[in-house]
Amino acid sequence: MALVVPPGSTPRPVELRSAVGVPIVQPVALADDHPRCQTSPAAPVVSVVIVNFCQWRNTARLVSQLRHSTASRTGAAEIIVVDNHSPFHPVVRTLESTPGVTIRRFHRNLGFARAVNRGVNIPPEPPQRGRPRPGTPRPPSEWILLLNPDVTVRDGFLDEVVATGAKLVAGEPAVGVVGFRMRNRDGSDQASSGPFPSLFRTLAGLLLPRSRRKCTHRREPDRRPVDWVTGGCLLVRRDCFRQLGGLDEAFFLYYEDVDFCRRATEAGWRVCFDPSLEVTHHWPLHARRVPAPLRLMTRHALLTYARKHWTGWRTRVLSGVVWAEAVARQAWAFARGDSHASHCYGQLRRLVGDVTAGRDRDTRRRLRYAAAFLDTISAEQDGRTE
User: Fold this and answer.
1) Which of 66, 123, 252, 289 has its Cα between 20 and 30 A from that of 78?
2) Domain range 46-124+139-287, CATH architecture
3) According to the model, what pLDDT value does residue 323 have?
């Protein structure tokens, strides 16, 4: 008999009963011959995943703020830091000794989507004093919270996240993705959700300020359905994450959140914006300079999204626009004597053809070229969240 599980709900264990309705108790194998009781460790409610890249000080500050909550101190929330090959910083030692924090470091930059997927599916933390014995790993959490390192939160934030998750489990099992309100450093509202990109919206957005090209400001006081919410502060039900296979690793940086929300909606999950919780996001993309390597990343993400979700002629039009932009920027960089930017825009011009033709190996090679210059760009924001 097939068991149908609606989106947002968790399959219940199947309980066997005898003919008279008495539960059948299965024998439990003990680890040794001593008949002592073994209790399974309680599952955390939420797993916080922070992808760090050359922002160790920001990451450490965020972890410290997250620890100012009952949920973190009691184990209802766990914190997982995934590092994309950042240079060593002394603060790493402090993070490694912080209870409830797990760090996983890679020897190359995997990109945001792949790092998140590795963080969500990392093996259990090795047991320490006062923690579960070997052989009894903690079950996975019900919710996954993605946070950018350049985000700051108030005391008790994780307690509010846990409470929100409990309400959704009890009353809205179809909600799979939730985004919270973001604010700028000056306290003003920062747009963090929007409609799904289309060719018209993308081209029309060129006439708008950068802060409004993808996102729209929302004034509603209550939780409302939206098309997508940003991955800088994203709460995802683990069942939803598992069903969709995580973030699409074809995206190296940017648009993986838009794509995930679109796939969640198509799978029957609801995506919501909840203004009742808020964080401060200090360095959104629209507030930073966009040098040539970072622009190559953003254009690759847009082209990848278009190729996946748009019809053929729209993708061709976008490819032509991005190619023309690359040619113009390359010429301007050459004219002002910036050979590095000129070469990078030449890579972008070729990347358009690679993505359009589906030459994945060449696409990855050009992404690796641009990624080699991202460490300096990212490090500019480290420790500047005051």
Assistant:
1) 252
2) Alpha-Beta Complex (3.90)
3) 97
